[in-house]
Amino acid sequence: MKKALSLFFVLLLVMSIIITGCSQPAKEEPKKEEPKQEEKASEQKIKVGFVYVGPIGDGGWTYAHNEGRKYLEEKLGVETIIKESVPESQEAEKVLNDMIDQGANVIFTTSFGFMDYTEKVAKANPDVKFLHCSGYKQLDNMSNYFGRIYEARYLSGIVAGLKTQTDVLGYVAAFEIPEVVRGINAFTLGVRSVNPDAVVKVVWTHTWYDPAKEKEAAKALLDDGADVIAQHQDTPGPQQAAEEKGVWSIGYNTDMKEMAPKAYMTAPIWNWGPYYVQQVKAVMDGTWKSTSVWEGMKDGIVELAPLTDVAPAEAKKAVEKVKADIISGKEKIFVGPIKDQTGAVKVQDGVVMTDEELLSVDWFVEGVEGKIK
Amino acid sequence: MDFMTSFLAAAVVAGTPLLFATLGEIITERAGNLNLGVEGMMLMGAVIGFKIGLITGNPILALLAAMFAGGMGALIFAILTISLRANQVVSGLALTIFGTGFSAFIGKDLVGQVTPNAIKLFFKPLEIPGLANIPILGKALFSQDLFIYLGYLTAIILGIYLYKTRKGLNLIAVGENPGAADAASINITLYKYAHVLLGGALCGLGGVYLSLVYVPAWQENVTAGRGWIAVALVIFAAWNPFKALIGAYLFGGMDIIGFRIQGTGFPISQYFIDMLPYLVTIMVLVVVSMRKSRKNAPPKGLGVPYFREER
User: Fold this and answer.
1) Which of A128, A145, A191, A205 has CA 20 to 30 A from B99's CA?
2) Given A9, A258, A259, which is nearest B86 (Cβ)?
3) What is the pTM of this model?
4) Which CATH architecture has domain B3-310?
5) Which of A82, A214, A221, A235 to mutate to test the interface with B (most CBs of B within 10 A)?
């Protein structure tokens, strides 16, 4: 008797968790799209789905996407649905099908690992528009989009280079992938454009999301002589380390001023809102076309957060000037001569690195102290 | 501070959340209950402790709240496994999922909040005069915050309790052979409940150390898997609170040593360092099972629900 009762309770607990886990009512099996809907597609109400890799509460990557979603709701008044902390696995496919069942006709998938699942579901649902962030696959109904965050990182490097007193900067980095390496290179070029003697020390954490560990990595850099901490991580852990040590920091993803008011100077940030509005508007107007977007400060997808009072006084002017040059296309950032860590010239004088080269970069520029692999 | 001292000091800090969680799980398993909900209980303690700390600005209340929250998580587990004799593994896993969701839910409006200054000040590193002057180890062990000292104290008290008191002996008996313990008129249900709840409270403390003192700001899923390392650490420590002290700081050190080695340019892959804690656990398991020492074996009654009628 008791056994049966206990089994019942365990089941009850598990079921209640499963039910609360899906914040939106989900149907068991994805139904086939009815042909009727196709005809009415233009009059159809727009419902936008967002698939997030982390919790909105990360105060970083997913938070930034969600800010974009809120901006979209505010501007266009469309209905949106979200799912947080979706694993980059088969699970993503299920979530996508669930969203389509709920009537979503535009879906943003906001992590690299969702690419193949998005593609698969996109093929099966030609009437739904998919927009995948940070990948490279494209279909008639699937766009990909990403931002040139390295432009903002270059600017943040200028701020850091002007601030440092020890000429040692610390960079807490997640994984040895081109996206991160490119950011470190841009940051270092920015630093050395104003402070040619400075070095950037890199520590790999092998995690995107572990506040305590990322803080610890920053502490190691600070003990190693760094007095400005920059980061390519999704939590503000490194900011806290700088705050406690009484030195300075550059954030990432979102404005992190609240987290470390005495240390934080600025941050390269994502600003997805305008892009989301533009894309959804196009869907509403029926002018939407599949695109592959890799845009930067010119289009406002990436920005440098406003400089705080902690940032050096001369930084503001310097940043403004370079920012204008980046937007006008005068400053290309990865322009030769660029030397690698050994001092050998990697990019010849006057040559601009192509997007292909940037997307597969696997070497550090001169001035970086650290190893890839 | 030189390289070694600053590394050791950081290892102790990194090991402290592991220490509390490990001690909690040791006490739980000593009562014969395998609670895999450590991660969930840590998160429950982390979020409730942080919230109370934020509202009241009182560190003591925050800690008590964290212990209460961890204990409540453990209570769910206790009712299921002790009174209803449900499967312990399943109940524990469910508790982890529940705790993770619970902390995310409660923590929704805490995101981005920072620990109040009053609490930060309370947990400022304090040097213990005399002891802090011991070369190398002194600075690492005795120039820390109060929470870390509480960790030493808890481990020592639990060790004495377990091995030097009558009640501790009774607890070991309950875990090893509840039937015999029952025959010796030990109240099995009471012992199990008390220690499962105590274990949950300690896990809650481990969690709140992360959110309130270590990070110190609210981040969803702040434990990032440390609860599972604690479960492995219990085996590493052979269910001994004193060994847990060593194990927790060792694992804490392995967790962070990579960052410091990378700075020196020593040619070792960070990927190798990432797997060290797990490698060490496997090695300990192998060694323990080869030696077949009774002392290092798990409590015999671990994971088995106790039915008086089936004695």
Assistant:
1) A205
2) A9
3) 0.83
4) Orthogonal Bundle (1.10)
5) A235
